[in-house]
Write a structure and sequence with these properties.
By secondary structure, the protein is mostly helical. It contains five helices and two strands.
């Protein structure tokens, strides 16, 4: 099985952004991975504009936005919010059980 710690990374880091490994063992992430792939495939000329400072800044911004939302867009986002999953793992007392059973009011539509 894959071990992110072998690369000095956490699994959550790897899931947050794309990562790649150069032949020399150096880890690259984000837009740099795509530039490396295109170059390795002999399509390096297509990466020239991506290396310009203004264009590169926009690509980095766009990739960060994409990476932040990709799991939700593809239906693979966690079904629980972090605070819901924490509450789910906590033991429930009688008061908590009663409030958990109460229906959550829905906002009225106008």
């Amino acid at each position: 099985s894959f071990d992110a710690n072998a690369f000095g990374l956490e699994q959550t880091d790897l899931m947050a952004r794309i990562h790649g490994e150069r032949p020399n063992g150096e880890i690259v992430e984000g837009v740099d991975v795509f530039l490396e792939i295109y170059t390795a495939l002999g399509l390096g000329r297509w990466t020239i504009p991506a290396r310009w400072p203004g264009i590169r800044w926009l690509l980095d911004l766009a990739y960060t936005w994409f990476a932040r939302n990709r799991l939700r867009w593809t239906g693979r986002a966690p079904t629980l919010c972090p605070w819901e999953s924490q509450a789910k793992n906590q033991p429930k007392g009688l008061a908590d059980q009663a409030s958990a059973a109460a229906p959550i009011p829905r906002p009225r539509q106008l």
